[in-house]
Design brief:
Layout (H helix, E strand, L loop, with lengths): L8 E6 L8 E5 L2 E7 L5 E5 L13 E3 L2 E3 L6 E2 L5 E3 L17 E4 L2 E5 L23 E10 L3 H7 L6 H4 L15 E3 L4 E11 L3 H5 L7 E10 L3 E10 L13 E13 L2 E10 L8 H27 L14 H24 L10
Antiparallel strand pairs: 1-10, 2-3, 3-4, 5-6, 6-7, 7-8, 9-10, 11-17, 12-13, 13-14, 14-15, 15-16, 16-17
Length: about 350
């Protein structure tokens, strides 16, 4: 059984990845052809002609419609077949699935489940996207040979930073600082403060800190796989409180994880910052440091996936820092089971049920 939640919004692409060209994207193991209509709206269709199964992405545009490159069957933006060359009747089974999309803040979201349940008010958002006191910058798309659950768990785990990112996002000062976890809200939250410590490499380079700082990490993980990391630093002499983080150099690192297959994920990352708003070099400086750090994550996560693919002699142990990931896994499993149960209840033929 798949470990994907289907009734949820996932990031399909940055807006810049989609134009009027037919392009294939793979999401939750399904191939989707995406393109922009003449009015700029994004279309997402099942990338497989129901006739001989040629991907529609190998066909061509006919206005806003898509023509299969094999025998010319043509489908509109809703997935309905509007032409079968050589005949006037259109078979009822001649259609492809159409997936709801929503575009905002330079991000294209897609709904892979029941279209009737695609509520755009549930698309992730945060006020800093449109607040002039903050600067928004898109980063890259990090491709990972790793299951999305492992990628997401890594993003609700402040404890790994000291060991995986010792020169960029962490240092030895945080190794023994306890991690606090809150699991009652919409997002799973893990956080800690490191008081009166040497600044990490990131804030030496970007924030310009030389003396000791108070720094923080707040990791928010939203189901199914969107993570927001609120991190920053302030001079120790300022003695800022936990709810005064805007007084320091504060950055939100956003990670939108797209499950491609069971063992492949894409992490599209970006940041929102409250400092250096008009510095033309700030974004490239930060991107360079983020790229170094995320390559460190990539090496760890892909090595873990390789081991998970091998037969296990015993179950992995769990330690105190695993509370957030354990709750996350339970939420995912509960939602998958709920969808499976709903599928069983709605299927008219109990003799055979197929759930992808």
């Amino acid at each position: 059984m798949s470990n994907f939640i289907r009734n949820a919004w996932y990031v399909a692409a940055w807006s810049t990845e989609i134009d009027d060209t037919l392009r294939r994207f793979t999401i939750l193991g399904d191939h989707v052809v995406m393109y922009r209509k003449s009015d700029g709206g994004v279309v997402a269709l099942e990338d497989r002609c129901p006739h001989r199964l040629l991907p529609l992405s190998k066909g061509k545009r006919v206005g806003d419609n898509v023509q299969c490159g094999y025998h010319g069957l043509t489908f509109d933006c809703s997935g309905a077949c509007v032409r079968v060359p050589g005949q006037t009747n259109l078979p009822k089974s001649a259609y492809v699935e159409a997936f709801p999309t929503e575009e905002r803040h330079g991000i294209v979201w897609i709904w892979m489940g029941d279209p009737a349940r695609a509520d755009t008010s549930k698309v992730f958002d945060m006020p800093e996207f449109t607040d002039p006191a903050w600067k928004v910058h898109h980063g890259d798309a990090l491709h990972l040979k790793s299951n999305y659950l492992n990628v997401a768990e890594n993003l609700v785990d402040p404890a790994h930073v000291s060991f995986v990112h010792p020169t960029t996002l962490g240092n030895a000062a945080s190794e023994n600082v306890p991690v606090h976890v809150q699991t009652e809200g919409e997002a799973i939250l893990a956080w800690r403060w490191i008081r009166d410590a040497e600044p990490i490499g990131f804030f030496k380079a970007f924030g310009g800190f030389t003396g000791h700082v108070d720094r923080w990490h707040y990791y928010y993980l939203y189901t199914p796989c969107t993570a927001v990391i609120d991190f920053g630093s302030a001079p120790t002499k300022d003695a800022i409180a936990e709810d005064e983080r805007d007084k320091g150099v504060r950055i939100f690192a956003l990670h939108f994880i797209t499950p491609v297959t069971e063992t492949y994920s894409i992490d599209r990352w970006m940041h929102i910052r409250n400092t250096a708003l008009d510095d033309p070099d700030a974004e490239e400086t930060m991107d360079k440091m983020f790229r170094v750090a995320f390559q460190e994550d990539k090496a760890i996560l892909e090595a873990v996936q390789e081991e998970e693919n091998r037969p296990a002699k015993r179950r992995p142990i769990r330690i105190a820092i695993d509370k957030g990931p354990l709750v996350y896994r339970k939420r995912i499993n509960d939602l998958i089971e709920l969808e499976r149960t709903e599928d069983l209840a709605s299927d008219p033929s109990p003799a055979f049920v197929y759930h992808d």
